[in-house]
Design a protein that fits this description.
Elements lengths: L1 H17 L16 H21 L11 H9 L22 H18 L7 E4 L3 E4 H25 L4
Antiparallel strand pairs: 1-2
Length: 162
């Protein structure tokens, strides 16, 4: 199961990488921000979450049922425009550089290799979903990244030059 999740996350990172060249494309009918913003945000979340997961103390992990988490994890998607991301993972930059995206991407790839070595009870505390175990954290990262890549795909489909 963990290897399958790792493969899904690796695949999503490759999809982010393949869209860096489209970073300046936007469609205000679909999203207020550019493709680059969605890629940047996805990578910021990925890296911050992995950092917290790696720094957690597995012996302090406490599992508690969370209805919202259960529903989102079953559905495999977030409703669009309903949640507000913490400032730490929202870019203030208007122009997001290729260099920034590539650096974050490399950091994410390294983080992914670290995740597989972590204890199953390593955890990330999400502001809505509560404590997420390593397995749940990987599922969250998958759903979150897919959410933003779906928006990216919609923007690109609407763009006449793409």
């Amino acid at each position: 199961m963990i290897n399958s999740s790792l493969q899904k996350l690796q695949s999503l990172l490759l999809e982010i990488e393949s869209n860096i060249t489209n970073k300046n494309i936007e469609d205000s009918n679909i999203s207020k921000v550019t493709v680059g913003w969605h890629l940047d945000h996805s990578l910021k979340v990925f890296n911050v979450v992995c950092e917290v997961l790696a720094g957690s103390n597995p012996s302090e992990y406490k599992s508690k049922f969370n209805t919202t988490r259960w529903l989102i994890f079953i559905l495999g998607s977030f409703p669009r425009g309903k949640a507000k991301a913490p400032k730490k993972v929202v870019s203030e930059k208007i122009i997001i550089s290729d260099k920034d995206l590539h650096e974050q991407l490399e950091h994410a790839k390294t983080a992914l290799s670290i995740i597989k070595t972590l204890d199953p009870h390593a955890y990330f505390k999400h502001h809505i979903f509560g404590n997420l175990s390593k397995k749940q954290t990987m599922r969250f990262l998958e759903i979150h990244t897919k959410h933003h890549l779906k928006i990216v795909q919609e923007i690109l489909r609407s763009h006449p030059l793409k």
